Amino acid sequence: MNSFKKEEQITGRIDWMTVFIYLGLVFFGWLTIYSAVYQDEEQNIFSTAVNSGKQFQWMVVSFIIGFILLIVDSKFFSTFAYVFYVLMIIVLVGVIFLGVEVKGQRNWIRFGGFQMQPSEMAKFATCLAVAKYISTLNVDIRKWKFKWRVFALAFFPMLIVLIQGDTGSAIVFVALILALFREGLESYFLVIGTAVAVLSVLALLIPKFIFSGILLLIAFAISYYNWRNKTAVKWIMGVWLISSLYIFSVDFAFSKLKSHQKDRINVLIGKGGNDWNIRQSMIAIGSGGFIGKGYLNGTQTKLKFVPEQSTDFIFSSIGEEFGFVGSIILVLAFVGLFYRLLFMAERQRSRFSRVYGYCVVSILFFHFLINIGMAIGVAPVIGIPLPFISYGGSSLLSFTILLFLFIRMDSQRLESFR
Amino acid sequence: MKDFYKNRHTVIQVIIAVFAVIFVIRLAYLQLIDKKYVLMARNNAIKEMEVYPTRGMVYDRNGKLIVYNEAIYDIMIVPRLTANVDSARLCELLDITLADYSDRKYKAKKYSPYKSSFFMKQVSMATYSRFQEFLYLFPGFYGQVRTIRKYPYKCGALVMGDIGEVDDRQILASNGYYKAGDYVGKGGIEKTYEKELGGKQGKKFIFVDVHNREQGSFADGQFDTLAQAGDNLFTSLDIEMQQYGEDLMQNKKGSVVAIDPKTGEILCLISSPGYDPNLLCGSIRGENFAKLLVDSLKPLFNRATMATYPPGSTFKPFVGLISLNEEVQGVEYTVPCNGFYYFGGLTLRCSHHHPWATNIQYALAQSCNPYFWQTFRNSIENKNYSRIQDSYGKWVEYCNSFGFGTKLGIDIPSEVRGNIPSVNYFNRMYGERGWKSATIISLGIGQGEVLVTPLQLCNAFASIANKGWYITPHLVKKIVDTDTQKDIKKKDEKHYTKISPEWYEPVIEGLYQVVQAGTASSSRVDGIAMCGKTGTVQNPHGDNHSLFAGFAPKDNPKIVIAVCVENAGFGGRFAGPIASLIIEKYLNDTISTRRLDLEKRMKETNLLNKYFAASKPKTAEPTDE
């Protein structure tokens, strides 16, 4: 291949559909941010005095960096994946000592006029490192020897972010389980994960003795039909015992939580607590009706009934102003993006880019799930942004890098050989 | 490396699809099915606010503005937003102490940390404009304009009434129109004409943000309703007469009521001691009200309509009229009087010496007690009635037809009935057979159980002036509807007395003689044919009350007046002169030079020490001049 032909191929193989969905989401987000801060017609969407103007600056920065990523050879990233990872860890630890505290979270660094959240940047570095490790020859995630290492790689940054006090960003790393699942992680990780979540919520809702009793009855019922199979009965009873122990431990764990964490869980299970945010968000979305109140006409978000309406609760602005139709279109746009990325991941020849692709989908999907779920009252209140939509330079930039690295890998998929 | 897990691609697709479907269902529920969120959003962001109307203004009979509105400000607080308030500066500007500041803030916070409530009520324009300059230093504070009443003439407080916060009973009765903190008329015409003066509240729908701050009007104000300003009232008061009367009555306890007999319009209604009505306006109301309430002279007690006195000799014309109408005696009926009256074993003493009364005119002029004892006895012992219950019952009816013993229905809230003792009262007191004319003889000279208010006395004299009728006395002659600019006042009722008109002539002549040559001759005004009757009323509270009731001119009377000066002695000494001065001023516009001394003396006389000296109750015989 001569160099001229190669250049042509790069642009030709860029997955434009993904890029268009990306641009559509970013511009839609920008307009929504403007609407969320909109007060009167005098206001300029580009004015840096308000969020929409600042977001525009970050958009320009993101577009430039995204463009640069499309030119750089993706081998560079796979080669230096561990270097990025180590650098990222150093920065994360550094932030704990040198960072600036904002809203009780020591996860900001400041240079010049800019503020950055390194925890956002940790996402793509971790994805690269995990992809790199799994794609290493002979690594088989089904074996505990390798499993531990992958987990350590994925969850060490999570631990540091947790120490920084940013529980929301930390939890995101759990999403990588989905990517690992694709690479052969046993399905019980998904099942146990889900079961633990469901049991935890139910344990706080239903009195624990009754709950344990109900589970025992179910266990007896299943055992009765399998009474010949002694092993099965033993297993079932074992599961019951562990579940019950877990149930009793939930209350204890719950009592050890910080008050805002308790609130989040209480809100989710409908037990009072400080559910102002979530209720206001649901009111805003619910009052949007079928076609919404129209762009810039939302009252609940504009009059600040919904807190954080341009960041964590931006979906309530969308739901209020664009109604059911707008919300569904947004949900479908995200699902379309995920499916496209999954499709792209599957067509990769290198395991590295495939794993990376799945990591990207996992992280984006987790954000989507928690952010919108929280706004419509089906997920706990965890303050993480809606990718490409929410206001925030660090998050826009980090999602852009995350996505464009994969677009770049995808455009070079034919060059790599296993 | 072989890819064993390609099918897991589908599993992940399904997981994403499942959650997307959950989101769609949830969104459909929130946005399409459950309608409550639309309502909740409205309740959140759209606030219904009352728009307070301006109260109607009040004019006197000559078109002088006597009550108007002045803007003042309530300072409101939203406690949650007051985190960074420069409280020292705020206290300095509002002239309160820091302790007071935290106290007020605490109260507001207890009501609601999010909702706005009163921090300080009724701050003057001057204070507020100073405060407003620094409003940016006080997040969570804002001003709300209100109006208070102002009275350019510092008189007639009890007639005008005052404005105060609506009480719980009124809130309940108003079907949600009033809410706590609204202001309503609390007395006088402000209370009676609350509906007209109060106007109609409007509604304003505004957007409020999460901190309850106004963010512009809802739907460009298309659902808003305007407040309708209160109707203007034109009272029948002559504010200058009111003022003049209060000046004459200063430092004396008592009352003056003047009525235009042709219309029943009250020209002045004075209760002394009075107070400046501006004292009960605005933030100083509470403090001043408490002071007035404990004042031993009871300035809040409307003596003109609520104080009852035995009418004394002022009652004699009515006793005479009843006997004439019952035809138990004629105009020229004579009772010999040599200072004593012997009757049924009693020896009653006339209070003063005078020639024999040979007719009713002379009896009135000299206020002869024996004459009216006899006259009263004649009507009670009337041969046309078999029992005293019937004759006395008839006599009560006559009295009631003059308005005695009944509420007249004046258009201010405080009015009492007075007392004309009923047949049943005496039956209960003495047994059905236990009483006769001698038992109740003192009624004949307006003493004993009979009690009248100065208003009733004045009104009854208006019936004499009109020769047989009166119109319900009232203070408001015209209500101008804000919308139509038309007079919406109901016509006042005309009442006829039970005395035929022919009997008034001799009595009026007698009353004329009272002023010309009788007991009130010191009150005579050259050029004015004044009729009247003095009264010197025995009472258990000290010296006699000085009473006078009369009208002028004799033909086609323009003013009827009743004056009562408590514990001032002989009726011709204070009440008569005060009445004559008011009449002279009303009819002639000035006081003749000859009588300026009298005017000065009336104004300057101070009887207050009489009221403060603990007076021993006296229980003497009725005496009269």
- Give me the count of strands of chain B: 20
Output the number of helix runs of chain B: 22
- The domain count of chain A comes to 2
Helix content of chain B: 25-40%
Describe, in plain words, how this protein is organized in 3D.
The complex is a heterodimer of chains A (418) and B (625). Chain A is mainly α. Chain A has 2 domains: 324 residues, no CATH class; 61 residues. The model of chain A has no long low-confidence stretch (mean pLDDT 82). Chain B has a domain of 372 residues: Beta-lactamase (3-Layer(aba) Sandwich), CATH 3.40.710. In chain B, the strands form 6 sheets. In chain B, strands 2, 3, 4, 5, 10 and 16 form a 6-stranded mixed sheet that branches. In chain B, strands 12-11-20-19-18 form a 5-stranded antiparallel sheet. In chain B, α10 packs antiparallel against α20 and α13 packs parallel to α15. The longest helix of chain B is centred in the N-terminal third of the chain and has 26 residues. Chain B is elongated, with a radius of gyration of 34 Å. The C terminus of chain B is likely disordered. The interface between A and B is large, with 45 and 39 residues.
Précis, in short:
Chain A is mainly alpha-helical and 418 residues long. Chain A is built from 17 helices and three strands. In chain A, strands 1-2-3 form a three-stranded antiparallel β-sheet.
